[in-house]
Request: fold
Amino acid sequence: MDHDNQLTRRSFLKSTAVTAAAGAAAASLPYFAAAQGNKRVIKTALIGCGGRGSGAIRDHLVAAQYLNEKHDLGLEVQVVATADWSRDKAVGTGKQLDVPEERCFGGPDAYKRVLEVDPDVVLMATPPVFRPLHFESCIKAGKHVFFEKPVAVDPPGVRRVIAAGELAKQSNLSAVCGTQRRHEEWRNQLAREIRDGAHGRVMGGRVAWNMGKIFGNTPINPKGPDDLVGSGKWQLWVEMSGDHICEQHVHNLDIANWVLGAQAGVDEAEPAHACTHPLSAGGFGHRARRVAGNMYDFFSVDLEYANGIHIHSMCRQVGGCWDWVGEEFTFEKSKPNDFQPQSPDVYAEVGYHRGATVCEHVHLLYGILKEKPINHARNVAWATGAAIMGREAAYSGQRISWQDMFEKPNEKDKRNWYNLQFKPTAEDFETGDVAMLKDGDIRIPGEA
Ligand SMILES: NC(=O)c1ccc[n+]([C@@H]2O[C@H](COP(=O)([O-])OP(=O)(O)OC[C@H]3O[C@@H](n4cnc5c(N)ncnc54)[C@H](O)[C@@H]3O)[C@@H](O)[C@H]2O)c1
Reply:
């Protein structure tokens, strides 16, 4: 166990740097941390109190402590509200963080109650189907956001996140995502080297999340919304998770988009934000072993990027097979020993915490405090889009273009990738009009 994991809740609370809310009013400033004497207070709320949500709030508190130790920022994070589909979970998590019960909310509209508490920052770690709605609501309410990946399950969801991300940019709001790898020092160094030409062109590559069986395999036979959301098996439904190519492999696809975006020297000043997207996808997949839910258990997809560069995307959740999680690229040349990238950025200024999930929050909080908001909404939306395009190529057996799916509806194509929207939607869970899903009801390639 590393040093951070040994920090107990009590040691967070005892720290002068970090306390949970005791209800005392912190002056509310919409965009940046309120100053109280030498203290700078950030009020944080959590939506989704499951495994990752509990981890994310802890990472957030560790990050505040780290920033105070390293940069003497006088930061105080107050956890002001929790929300979950299950009120019991919201209360349970709230109790650990000393959030009063009346600010622990349950139910499908709990995210709205959180916004009424008026936090500065909202962390969200619910199943991905809810992300576009929750993210958009938070940005429209003027909140900084940390949101988990992936950020959508279908093309309209991806476009909604891109639009809300643009609004965040105009409003100087942060939108940092749980992509982890974007906050690792060596990868940022590599992105700078690529951007500054040390390796020559990227010629091609492969990215993968191949692992064993996961999430059990007993049919779920859902009867109501609770069986889809609260069962802890939401991952198994494409309508909830986007399938594992989206829910898990999105990490690796984000790296492909990052590396090729860094090469393109895109419009972003900072290589940490560089991004592009594939132009088309064709591939295959199916379920070899899975019985529960309706997602596949393997995919193999060819992604074509600009200038004819191909990336092989692979992901599998089947035991007893070749496991490999990673990203590899073929470069035109080796980096000269004396190469020095010329691109300082805000990450270099604040530094890197060695735990990537903590470092996400170090960068988030530092960006807020220094009024240099970090906005990764488009990056993660594009990585999610790459996963959705690959998934639909495999489900349908067709080659699909980014333009048809995300930019311009192709009216002649009956499949109409642009308007492919799953049900139930996030809004359906609020109205209670939830279309029920069936185990084993999977898409067959070549069928309409
Ligand atoms: N970056 C990473 O390393 C990483 C790791 C694990 C999970 N994740 C992501 O985090 C997200 C959550 O995953 P998890 O493993 O914590 O799942 P989980 O099932 O443990 O937790 C999800 C929580 O959200 C709650 N919830 C569901 N619908 C809700 C709603 N409408 N409003 C409020 N709460 C709602 C559930 O009751 C549950 O407590 C997923 O998007 C997942 O892909 C990221």
